[in-house]
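Thread title: Can someone regenerate the structure for this chain?

I was given the following input by a collaborator and told the matching structure tokens would be attached. They weren't. Posting the sequence so someone can regenerate them.
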Amino acid sequence: MTDIVLADDAWEGVDPGTEALLSEWLVREGDRVGVGQVVVRVVLVKASLDIAAPAAGVVERILVREEETFARGKVLAVLREGIVAA
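Best answer:
Regenerated them for you:
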């Protein structure tokens, strides 16, 4: 299993305690994804950021829903690796 998270470098210079907003999932649980495929969009300090799948596989679980906020290091979804996207 691989975690989908907002990379630490996106949080550089952001005040501690600031949370990001998950604006849109581009996939659903059970969807196959390819490595580098954009799977979710978030907003952090007025900047919209795309998060890509770190590996090919299937979206096992989505842990943060659209319009919810999340802190640095929070796992947004879990990816089951090893299944190549169709």
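Residues 2-81 form a domain with the OB fold (Dihydrolipoamide Acetyltransferase, E2P) fold (CATH 2.40.50.100).
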